Amino acid sequence: MNITDQHQLKGNFLESKQITKDTLEEGKLIEGDTLSVLNKIDDNVVNVGVTSPPYNKQEKHKGWLVKNVVYDVYKDAVPEPEYQQHQVDVLNEIYRVTAPGGSFFYNHKVRWERGNMYHPMDWLRKTEWTVKQEIIWDRMIAGNIRGWRFWQVEERIYWLYKPIDNKLIGTELRSCDAKLTSIWRGVPENGKNNPHPAPFPLWLPARVIISILDTETQGVVLDPYIGSGTTAVAAKLLGHKYIGIDRSEEYMKMTIDRLDNAHSEMSKIQEELGLHQVEMTFKERKSKGKNVGKYRNTDDESKTDQPSLFEQ
Q1: Which residues pair with 221 in a beta bridge?
Q2: What are phi and psi of 83, to 5 degrees?
Q3: For residue 41, which of 19, 65, 228, 265 is within the disulfide window of CB 3.0 to 4.6 Å?
Q4: What number of helices (H) and strands (E) belong to the chain?
Q5: Do the domain assignments include residue 140?
Q6: What is the share, in percent, of the chain residues with pLDDT greater than 70?
Q7: 61-75, 78-92, 103-117, 132-146: segment of lowest average pLDDT
Q8: What is the largest CA-CA distance in the chain?
């Protein structure tokens, strides 16, 4: 099945739990409502996901250098309680389709409306996920000329984790990934190069996929708000399968075009891969009798074993 055929998948034509590991092939792009399409995916299919949903910015909030965010077919203006409950429902469905030991990286931001602050943790704590970490994305953008608060130049990325046997910590990150710290600095995608109103920069989903899956074993990567296809491109170039969902036919066409020409973006993937390097890993330092840290537990038997691509 080629990419154009994959685009023909329409969420309202799919039967319940029709998307399985056996039917994925290279990947699937599914046009339809996010929650409805997630209901058609089998349990425990996904290994890692990353997304940035619409923020419910009421289609009117903007910065000095940022246009109003208006999507193709979705109106980003609903009552806040309704928005938050919908996000809880979507995240719980993503939890179901994710294999134990899998992760989901959820990009959002702190918002204000009439003086009230809405924080993503307001609804994340209502989901089934374990919130493993809050990552700050320093977008390195210019602030507003005026402001009632210090200029907001950051967004948040929440690492959500589905435990194996209720072990909430999970397995240790590789040194070459953990060294990238909990503050990620990088500018957003240039709007002149991408007509989607809020696209990811390619390095962001690539960093997630590299850190969680590496490139040794093929996994399944989910983006339930695929937009212009950045997550799918990163997954394809790193050798993984993808599931991308969006209700906009126009955004699906953008994704198809990028996947067809994914090789042209490989240099950005190589640049991100170059950041995931260390001169000597913890295990190598230990085997050579080097210093591994005064308070570090060096008993390898204490580490939790994790099956390949988590539990199936």
Answers
A1: 48, 242
A2: -60, -50
A3: 19
A4: 10, 10
A5: yes
A6: 78
A7: 61-75
A8: 60
For CA atoms 248, 56, 211, 166, the dihedral sign is: negative
Q: Which of 191, 260, 203 is nearest to 230 (CA)?
A: 203
Kindly state whether residue 308 falls inside one of the protein's structural domains.
Answer: no
How many domains would you assign to the chain? 1
Strands 220-223 and 46-51 come out as parallel
Write the single-letter amino acid at 164.
I
Copy the structure tokens of residue 28. Answer: 């699937």
Q: Which two tokens stand for residue 234?
A: 């990163």
Non-local CB neighbours of 187 within 8 Å, separated by 6+ positions = 139, 140, 141, 201
Question: Could you count the other beta carbons within 10 Å of the beta carbon of residue 116?
Answer: 8
Please indicate, yes or no, if residue 142 is contained in any of the structural domains.
Answer: yes
Whichever domain contains 79, its CATH number is 3.40.50.150
pLDDT at 71 over 50: no
What range does the domain containing 178 cover? Answer: 3-291
* DSSP 8-state class, residue 89: H
In a domain, 296, yes or no: no
Q: What single letter denotes the amino acid at residue 87?
A: Q
CA angle 188, 193, 194 (to 5 degrees): 75
The one-letter amino acid at 21: K
pLDDT of residue 124: 98
pLDDT at 300: 46
pTM for the whole structure: 0.85
Angle at 1 between CA 225 and CA 262, to 5 degrees: 55
Query: Around Cβ 64, how many Cβ atoms within 10 Å?
Result: 12
